[in-house]
């Protein structure tokens, strides 16, 4: 277990509310229609449970729409972390889909607490049609309005985009849009079957390869936007052979629900029901110290299955040195167990970029 799982998290995901005013067609959140809000007591327990050696820790406020908790409550939730932030032991990030307006008052909070802002948008209007509110109305104009507020206030922002089947042939169009939007960093999530999105239309690996080929080609011509997946792969290839062959430890990513429940390995498991895995709950911060919950992760069946499967991945998969077993949650959502190896996520988000880059390099070498 210690070989594969880091003892000290680098990221903690905190859910201030389950509520999201949006109803994106591919959303994995099962409780996004419920208004369940974290209390300052839970936030204090999270902050108090951050181990003295866990630094720096990124505290990500995410899922549902964190701004839906309201400005006053959000500031109350930040307060228990303030001494840690001022000591540079934690840094905050918020990921918003624009379900609540980004106002000047919100920007004041972002600046005061040095909160990194991530915005979820999939591309230009015609490719953002999966992001709608509960009435089915497009979110595009409202999300753009929030981005314009951030830009007016000179607050930098990153972008997360979901790539659905209809977007796999539009990489250059999407990236041109992101560049013109004013972000310098983009992360792409290929649509996957997760949580509530059990019937999602996962792109084929061939469509994913086309998307990544076009993305690499765009990045070759443009250097003003960092694409997470391109940067990760090129960074890996830049390592020495010894470092590429070395095993890496997975961040346990403790994810704390609005009521203090903690799940590990995959934020997407939050709120998911499973008798076999005891709903994935590793503990509750109101009842036990967060660091203690992480330390006893080896007692959890799904963690045991995942780490055992990593050994199989290492022995059987030619992509393992790069992906190191990828994400735990996708194994469960696709197969109902963590004991499997290959998933659609592996094929579309790990194998496809590698194969796409190899094809481009081979074509260049043959010319």
Automatic annotation (TrEMBL):
PROSITE patterns: RADICAL_SAM. Coiled coil: none annotated. It comes from Lentzea albidocapillata. Residues 6-228 form the Radical SAM core domain. The keyword Transport does not apply. The keyword Iron-sulfur applies. This is Radical SAM core domain-containing protein. Pfam families: Radical_SAM. GO terms for molecular function: iron-sulfur cluster binding; metal ion binding; oxidoreductase activity. Keywords: Iron, Iron-sulfur, Metal-binding, S-adenosyl-L-methionine. InterPro entries: Aldolase_TIM, rSAM, rSAM_sf, Sulphatase_maturase_rSAM.
């Amino acid at each position: 277990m210690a070989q594969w799982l880091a003892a000290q998290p680098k990221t903690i995901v905190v859910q201030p509310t389950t509520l999201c005013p949006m109803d994106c067609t591919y959303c994995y959140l099962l409780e996004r229609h419920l208004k369940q809000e974290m209390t300052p007591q839970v936030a204090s327990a999270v902050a108090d449970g951050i181990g003295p050696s866990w630094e720096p820790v990124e505290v990500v406020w995410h899922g549902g729409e964190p701004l839906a908790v309201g400005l006053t409550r959000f500031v109350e939730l930040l307060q228990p972390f303030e001494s840690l932030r001022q000591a540079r032991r934690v840094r905050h990030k918020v990921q918003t889909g624009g379900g609540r307006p980004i106002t000047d008052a919100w920007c004041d909070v972002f600046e005061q607490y040095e909160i990194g802002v991530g915005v979820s948008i999939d591309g230009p209007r015609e490719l953002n049609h999966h992001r709608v509110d509960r009435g089915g109305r497009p979110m595009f104009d409202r999300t753009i309005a929030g981005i314009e507020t951030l830009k007016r206030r000179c607050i930098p922002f990153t972008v997360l985009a979901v790539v659905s089947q209809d977007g796999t042939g539009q990489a250059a169009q999407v990236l041109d849009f992101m560049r013109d939007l004013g972000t310098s960093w983009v992360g792409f999530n290929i649509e996957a079957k997760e949580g509530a999105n059990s019937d999602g239309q996962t792109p084929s690996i061939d469509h994913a390869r086309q998307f990544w080929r076009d993305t690499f080609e765009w990045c070759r011509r443009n250097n003003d936007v960092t694409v997470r997946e391109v940067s990760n792969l090129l960074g890996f290839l830049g390592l020495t052979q010894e470092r590429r062959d070395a095993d890496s430890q997975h961040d346990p990513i403790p994810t704390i629900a609005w009521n203090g429940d903690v799940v590990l390995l995959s934020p997407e498991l939050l709120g998911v029901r499973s008798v076999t895995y005891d709903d994935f709950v590793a503990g509750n911060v109101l009842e036990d110290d967060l660091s203690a919950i992480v330390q006893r992760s080896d007692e959890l069946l799904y963690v045991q299955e995942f780490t055992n499967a990593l050994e199989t991945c290492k022995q059987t998969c030619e992509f393992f040195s790069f992906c190191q077993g990828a994400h735990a949650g996708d194994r469960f959502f696709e197969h109902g167990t963590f004991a499997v190896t290959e998933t659609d996520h592996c094929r579309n988000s790990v194998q496809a970029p590698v194969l796409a880059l190899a094809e481009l390099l081979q074509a260049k070498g043959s010319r």
